[in-house]
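Design request, tokens follow.
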């Protein structure tokens, strides 16, 4: 028992001394860590997505937790360096590993995990694959401590969370970037955490519905935000931040439709669709062919 308590004490001390993740205060009480525009690797420890937290008068909400437990612990250290208020909510904007692999760092009594009503099923279906795949890519040391934690507070439409004189409006969206996209709008600062429904510099990555995503962009533009924290890329003015993404997705859809109309095989669409957009995006060659293939399958029978 003594040995077990000693080990627990060592683990707690190590956790409390985790390196602090660098964050910027983009508006009063709104803190953002900007991830590297890259693929998840052992070297970057999965630190590729924008994540952050919002501090109210009574409590804190964390928005996504990063691509490894180590990153999640560093985010927790950043929170604790700025406030001792309880972390009441951890909000996952969707279920991709670079946004949820740090969840276990915040798994504590009194903390609710919030996500789209379809997020639990998405994590249950894909979680084991994500862990196996990234264990190969990033190594066991980084991935073995990761725990897949589903939401305890699901959102099927909209939900308002009160942090104390600070209200967050959460909205669940139809399939677009993924099938579990959720946005967070802070009314006090007019800041929108858009998750991966918004990409800047990093090519958009589609894992849901191209047509659905384009429709969602039209609805997103109506949110009265002043700035957006995208899932990837710099914090930017709103709604101008949507322009490049809208252009890419519209081009991709038009090219795939043209290829399908000509009777060209899916391989041709994967090679050619969206090619004019290559100069405008980082990681284009890593994701565009996959986007085009998914889009071709979506519109093949329309």
């Amino acid at each position: 028992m003594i040995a077990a308590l000693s080990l627990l004490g060592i683990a707690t001390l190590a956790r409390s001394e985790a390196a602090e993740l660098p964050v910027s205060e983009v508006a009063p009480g709104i803190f953002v860590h900007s991830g590297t525009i890259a693929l998840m690797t052992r070297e970057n420890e999965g630190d590729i997505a924008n994540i952050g937290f919002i501090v109210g008068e009574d409590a804190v909400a964390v928005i996504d937790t990063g691509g490894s437990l180590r990153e999640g612990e560093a985010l927790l250290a950043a929170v604790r360096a700025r406030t001792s208020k309880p972390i009441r909510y951890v909000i996952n904007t969707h279920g991709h590993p670079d946004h949820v692999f740090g969840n276990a760092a915040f798994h504590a009594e009194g903390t609710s995990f919030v996500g789209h009503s379809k997020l639990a099923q998405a994590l249950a279906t894909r979680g084991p694959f994500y862990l196996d795949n990234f264990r190969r890519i990033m190594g066991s040391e980084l991935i073995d401590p990761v725990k897949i934690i589903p939401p305890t507070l699901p959102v099927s439409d909209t939900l308002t969370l009160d942090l104390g004189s600070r209200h967050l409006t959460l909205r669940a969206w139809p399939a677009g970037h993924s099938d579990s996209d959720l946005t967070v709008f802070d009314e006090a600062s007019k800041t929108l955490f858009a998750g991966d429904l918004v990409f800047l510099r990093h090519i958009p990555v589609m894992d849901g519905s191209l047509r659905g995503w384009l429709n969602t962009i039209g609805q997103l533009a109506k949110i009265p935000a002043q700035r957006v924290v995208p899932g990837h890329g710099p914090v930017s003015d709103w709604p101008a931040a949507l322009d490049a993404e809208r252009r890419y997705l519209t081009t991709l859809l038009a090219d795939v439709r043209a290829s399908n109309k000509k009777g060209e095989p899916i391989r041709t669409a994967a090679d050619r669709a969206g090619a004019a957009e290559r100069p405008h995006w980082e990681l284009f060659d890593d994701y565009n062919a996959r986007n085009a293939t998914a889009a071709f399958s979506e519109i093949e029978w329309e």
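Comment from the thread starter after seeing the answer: thanks! Residues 16 and 186 are 29 Å apart (CA to CA).
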